[in-house]
Automatic annotation (TrEMBL):
Binds 1 Mo-molybdopterin (Mo-MPT) cofactor per subunit. One of its GO terms (cellular component) is membrane. Mo-molybdopterin binds at Q665, F696, R810, A977. It comes from the Eukaryota. It is a multi-pass membrane protein. It is found in: Membrane. One of its GO terms (molecular function) is 2 iron, 2 sulfur cluster binding. This is FAD-binding PCMH-type domain-containing protein. Its cofactor is Mo-molybdopterin; [2Fe-2S] cluster; FAD. InterPro entries: AdipoR/HlyIII-related, Ald_Oxase/Xan_DH_a/b, Ald_Oxase/Xan_DH_a/b_sf, Ald_Oxase/xanthine_DH-like, AldOxase/xan_DH_MoCoBD1, AldOxase/xan_DH_MoCoBD2, AldOxase/xan_DH_Mopterin-bd_sf, CO_DH_flav_C. It comes from Caenorhabditis japonica. The active site is at E1160. Substrate binds at E700, R778, F812. PROSITE patterns: FAD_PCMH (PS51387).
Length: 1229
């Protein structure tokens, strides 16, 4: 049976964009779930059908815990006080695909026949394009002749390497040769001792041939081939493997190649050929790779084929890879191992060990190999090998690429895995741990077991009332087909293009700029820089961010000038030609450095819970407490990684008018900043957003960085301007989630109740204020999470550093504040040997409790979500199963964990908690709604359409939203803080109320009439059919300067997640096995949208806490500037057992139609996977005699996991030198 859902799947931010996972066709099923994907977040979502295979007989992925089975389940037992929704059924599926046409392969898009008509693929030709000449030979001799005559010509196959060099290094490529049509390069055959594979074959073709041979040859012969097949599965993505050739991988000599260690350990050969010297075979050994990106291949030679040896009876082979992310990621370390053992004496006759990622080239461990040959295969052999390898492969502490200890531990762990594998194959049971299974994820099903539980609308609700129904995203079809229009799709006549000239250093002075070379480039129109900026004008809410650098450089990637050209690529290339004379100074990069330098962006903030009941702060004597834990934890930042990078178009008009089209979350901020910096009145500027391809907070306050320079250029040259950032520049310029250090001191009584808390949150704000104040305040008011403290003193410090200004990100400081608290709970439990779940339950907030910041919690559902999640996930039973699994497995460990969350809804500034709307009714009965919120894929427009349709009592098809614009709704707040639906929904409701009041006389006059008749009667009687609506939500400001609290938010959203993981303790890899979430969304406006938000937020939070790592050099140079270096969750990382339940019988008297906000609240639940990983690591540490509490910073990358799993392998890894005695590759910001 299948459970299917039809929803706007989303990876949403607070008022930000959504993402769906790629669709995978498995048999005839569409396999998918809303989440991160493709090596990048598909941040401009499309609505899709999702079909989840369910194996349970009752059709529910929750099996025996299904509410159909457990009739008295807590799913419907409890209700939130004030719930008025009546009896509503609980649904387990969002929709059915039963009426969909079956998949028909004949309807797939075909290759255009007109391109095949003239047989260009079989013809030789040469083609000139600008400064590049392209040759396509079909005759092999012609290929060799071309390479002789043009020895420095680059051969291009899949373009997977050259495209990057062209894009970002602007390399000169005068000659290219495409050898893909040369038939001799596709020869494949089995030779006497090996497999000959031509290098014209794509990696996909090679893999298919390898699989064919694996089925035809004996198992003993194909051990190398089997590992090639397994490695190719993780080699890039399918689209790359379909075009890329193994020859490019060999010729580029990447030291982190997945395959080169296999060739080297297997003693494979390459067949090289030249016109003058003929064919030769060259072993891929220690003499093949001459240095970084250098080989012994001569300039006139072509790689004709690779020859892979077949293995014999007593030979063993294996290869291993570890990356930051399993799927579609380059390796950190790859190891390949070959050994030939005499089966009678167990003497090693031959051994070859090769590593990638351990040197500037793929490296054979010659010393270790020579000393191991002739040795007896035994436990002593393993010990000797680990000692030899640790000496031969040790890396200096500041090695390029960093992770010196981890990389060495991987090399050793890979050999240990190989040793156990061979021992098991030999049935050599004398060695220790030979019976252990070292592969994780074995129990993960291929199909996806998932449920989405929600409440149907009340049976009495009108059929055409769309509120509460799981409607698809209004733009879903357009997202799917590619018809949705984004900023870059808009073409304006006579439009020029802009590219930034950015700083190559993080801190220093700018001495001069030389534009000469750039201005000589064809297509360059001119430039703008600091001297074009209105005197003294700076951008930002605090007027502290220069548009362009004039004298002082304050972060790497800071805009210094901008080139104006006829197209985007010319502008980029010209910008790279601008010569900058700078003088570097030592930057402040990390929180630690900022604290030492007393470098802060603003004064410190405080909250004192004692001021809720007293006039003065109560200072407690900590010496009287018997049980105190004290510590600190670091939490890294997070790149927004929206699919659509930041961009804008500015069109100048008469009378100094400017039309701005931008991808941004706050049209009003852009509006204000451009007016301020150009000295133009706001009424002469129109700022418009159609839709945004992802935001996540990264486009809330940063729009002026683009809009102001583009507007300056538009006025200077009197031409439309388009400015779009490449991912490379976007990640350097626009900031990230704030990294935090969280310090705590907590006193508990003998029963585990929290008595007193001293909590300090310290953020890395970057070089200017941006939104750091709001982020810190949000962190502080979430430092309690869901727990009641007898007394709490909370401090916030914002560090000023030489980094791009860190900015808003989904959760806006809340996840950071809650993370420190959850770590603190673990610290208490481990230090005093208490059960962490019981500690939580003893300290949960109850109805009416007051937070440290003065808010009383009404309709507090934390306990309800906790209990329901605990039941739904079968947590207690699975906890015992995890303990049993860990007792039986020495190097694989599992962890299971429950994590609760509370998130306050509303902006931190009172004036932002307002919204406007304009509702226009036309005489054909159609309705146009404009509001101040931005559609970012999160489904805001869909919900607003539902609200308007209900309010006007008309079908939703009659309502339309075109865009968001400042000339329709002025002074709108950012689409952020999760209040997009709350605020704009209330404003639309208000406007609709006015319309209905005006129509009321006509309805009374003609009660049998309908909407159209009433509208036309109003028009005939000259009654206005347009209305401007307004909405506000509750807010009382907290005094963060003195620490006095207030009823800051109108309500909170609650949720709980349960996660189970499996960890490979030898490598740091992990699998997320199952996730269960219960979320309190009140009475959902749209369950499909809300469930998509929850799933997407969880995956984004999972990325934040487990794999997304921002890497910056100690000199402030940002290393993570694209998908090659920054890793987000892929489809493979989504749990195959994923169950989301909306809390039943919940209501919210403070929300539009009793709903609750949902954009940000679920994100912190992603930390549940982090804590489950930590439980698995702790099980390994306890097994190895380390029972004490340990610091485990976020994110839990493979490096952090492995290095926390201290064991006999890590004992061979040298300790790092004393801090300050070397320069680390990256700094912990």
């Amino acid at each position: 049976m299948q459970i299917c859902m039809f929803l706007s799947a989303s990876y949403h931010t607070f008022g930000c964009s959504s993402i769906v996972m790629r669709q995978k066709w498995l048999k005839m099923d569409v396999f998918g779930i809303s989440a991160g994907l493709l090596g990048m977040y598909l941040n401009g979502i499309y609505t899709a059908f999702f079909c989840f295979q369910i194996n349970d007989t009752n059709g529910c992925g929750m099996g025996e815990n299904c509410c159909k089975v457990k009739k008295s389940s807590s799913l419907s037992d409890d209700a939130t006080p004030g719930y008025t929704g009546g009896e509503r059924k609980r649904k387990l599926q969002l929709s059915s695909l039963s009426d969909c046409a079956p998949y028909d392969a004949t309807q797939e898009i075909i290759f255009p026949p007109e391109l095949k008509h003239k047989n260009f693929d079989s013809l030789s030709f040469a083609y000139d394009h600008h400064h590049t000449k392209w040759y396509q030979p079909v005759d092999y001799d012609d290929l060799l002749t071309l390479k002789r005559e043009l020895p420095h010509a680059r051969l291009i196959s899949g373009n997977s390497e050259l495209a990057i060099e062209l894009k970002f290094r602007f390399i000169d490529l005068p000659v290219l040769i495409n050898p893909k049509q040369v038939k001799e390069l596709y020869v494949k055959r089995v030779e006497e001792n090996g497999v000959y594979m031509g290098t014209g074959m794509s990696l996909t073709d090679m893999d298919r041939y390898v699989v064919k041979l694996m089925n035809e040859l004996t198992v003993e012969q194909v051990k190398v081939l089997q590992n090639i097949h397994e490695m190719l599965h993780w080699f890039a993505g399918t689209h790359v493997r379909n075009v890329a050739s193994v020859s490019g991988n060999i010729a580029t000599a990447s030291p982190i190649s997945d395959l080169n260690p296999i060739w080297m350990a297997a003693n494979a050969q390459v067949v090289l050929d030249s016109a003058d010297r003929g064919e030769r075979r060259c072993c891929i050994d220690e003499n093949f790779f001459l240095g970084y990106r250098k080989t012994c291949i001569r300039s006139d030679e072509v790689i004709k084929a690779v020859v892979v040896p077949l293995t014999t009876k007593n030979e063993h082979f294996a290869a291993y890879k570890q990356a930051q992310r399993r799927e579609d990621d380059i390796a950190i370390v790859t190891g390949a191992f070959f050994v030939k053992i005499n089966p009678d004496t167990f003497i090693v006759e031959k051994i070859r060990i090769a590593f990638g990622g351990m040197a500037p080239t793929t490296k054979l461990t010659l010393t270790t190999m020579s000393k191991l040959e002739g040795q007896f295969w035994s436990q002593g052999f393993l010990d000797q090998a680990l000692s030899l390898l640790s000496e031969e492969m040790k890396l200096p502490a500041g090695v390029p690429g960093g992770m010196s200890q981890y990389r060495l531990s991987l090399a050793l762990s890979f050999f240990f895995k190989f040793f156990l594998k061979v021992s098991k194959d030999l049935n050599f049971m004398e060695v220790q741990n030979v019976e252990q299974n070292l592969t994780i994820g074995n129990t993960i099903p291929k199909s996806l077991n998932a449920t989405q539980v929600y409440q149907e609308v009340n049976d009495k609700q009108k059929y055409d009332d769309p509120v509460g129904r799981p409607l698809k995203h209004v733009s879903g079809d357009k997202h799917t087909t590619g018809e949705a229009v984004y900023c870059d799709d808009i073409n304006v006549a006579d439009c020029l293009h802009i590219a930034f000239v950015t700083s190559p250093i993080a801190h220093g002075t700018l001495n001069s700029i030389d534009y000469t070379a750039a201005l000589h480039l064809n297509g360059v129109i001119g430039y703008i820089d600091a001297y074009d900026v209105y005197t003294g004008a700076q951008i930002g809410h605090h007027n502290d961010t220069p548009v362009f650098v004039k004298d002082e450089i304050t972060f790497h990637g800071q805009p210094i000038a901008a080139i104006v050209a006829t197209d985007h690529e010319i502008a980029r290339k010209a910008a790279s030609l601008v010569k900058l004379d700078t003088a570097a100074k030592k930057p402040i990069v990390t929180i630690k450095q900022a604290l030492e330098a007393d470098s802060f962006i603003f004064k410190h903030f405080v909250i004192h819970s004692s001021l809720n009941d007293n006039e003065t702060v109560v200072k407690n004597d900590w010496s009287k407490y018997e049980r105190v834990v004290e510590g600190s934890i670091d939490m890294g930042g997070q790149e927004h990684f929206y699919l659509e990078t930041q961009q804008c178009i500015v069109i100048p008009h008469e009378d100094d008018e400017l039309e701005i089209i931008i991808s941004n979350q706050c049209v009003n901020d852009v509006h204000i900043e451009v007016a301020k910096c150009l000295g133009i009145a706001q009424h002469k500027i129109s700022t418009t957003v159609k839709r945004i391809g992802g935001g996540f907070g990264g486009k809330e306050s940063t729009g002026a960085i683009l809009a102001v320079p583009a507007s300056l250029a538009a006025r200077k040259f009197n031409k439309p301007m388009k400015l779009k950032l490449e991912r490379f520049d976007d990640m350097a310029i626009t900031g990230t989630r704030h990294p935090f250090t969280l310090q705590y001191k907590l006193a508990v009584d003998e029963n585990g109740k929290f008595i007193d808390l001293d909590y300090t949150a310290i953020s890395n704000s970057g070089h200017t204020m941006d939104l750091s104040m709001g982020v810190m305040q949000r962190a502080m008011v979430h430092a309690d999470n869901v727990y009641k403290f007898g007394n709490a003193d909370i401090t916030g410090k914002m560090c000023k550093t030489h980094l791009a200004s860190n900015t808003a990100f989904r959760g806006f400081g809340g996840p950071q504040g809650m993370f420190g608290t959850e770590i603190m709970v673990k610290h208490v439990a481990e230090q005093f040997n208490w059960d962490h779940d019981e500690i939580r339950e003893k300290n949960f907030y109850q109805e009416g409790d007051c937070t440290p910041f003065g808010m009383h919690l009404n309709q507090c559902n934390v306990t309800r979500t906790w209990k329901e999640c605990k039941t739904n996930s079968d947590y207690c039973k699975r906890l015992e199963e995890v303990k049993k699994f860990n007792s039986e497995n020495k190097f694989r460990k599992r962890g299971i964990y429950l994590t609760p969350t509370r998130f306050g809804i509303g902006f931190g500034l009172k004036q932002l908690n307002q919204a406007g709307a304009l509702v226009l009714v036309y005489t054909d009965g159609s309705v146009l709604v404009s509001h101040g919120g931005m559609e970012m894929g999160q489904g805001l427009h869909t919900k607003i359409l539902q609200i308007a349709a209900r309010c006007l009592e008309i079908p939703i098809e009659k309502v339309h939203i075109r865009d968001t614009a400042t000339d329709k709704v002025p002074n709108s707040s950012a689409t952020a803080a999760s209040v997009g639906s709350d605020l704009n929904g209330l404003a639309v409701q208000d406007a609709c109320r006015q319309i209905l009041e005006r129509l009321e006389p006509f309805k009374k006059e003609n009660p049998e009439g309908g909407w159209l008749e009433w509208v036309n009667s109003a028009y005939v009687n000259r009654v206005s059919l347009s209305a401007s609506g307004f909405g506000i939500i509750h807010h009382e400001p907290v005094d963060f300067f003195n620490g006095k609290g207030a009823e800051l938010f109108g309500y909170s959203v609650y949720g709980t997640a349960a996660c189970e993981v499996e960890v490979d303790c030898l490598t740091g890899d992990h699998h997320l096995l199952r996730t269960d979430i219960v979320m309190d969304v009140g009475e959902s406006l749209n369950p499909a949208i809300d469930i998509g938000q929850i799933e997407g937020a969880f995956i984004q939070g999972y990325g934040l806490f487990t794999m997304e790592e921002i890497k910056i050099r100690p000199d402030g140079i940002r290393l993570t500037r694209g998908p090659g270096t920054y890793k987000i969750p892929s489809a493979d990382d989504v749990p195959k057992n994923f169950n989301v339940s909306l809390l039943g019988n919940s209501s919210n008297k403070m929300g539009i139609f009793s709903s609750k906000a949902i954009g940000e609240p679920p994100l912190f639940l992603g930390s549940c996977a982090f804590f489950a990983i930590r439980e698995a690591v702790r099980a390994y540490r306890v097994q190895n005699g380390k029972k004490e509490y340990f610091v485990f910073n976020s994110p839990s990358t493979p490096e952090r996991i492995r290095m926390a799993c201290e064991d006999f392998v890590t004992q061979h890894v040298p300790a790092l030198p004393e801090e300050g005695s070397y320069t680390p590759w990256t700094a912990s910001v």
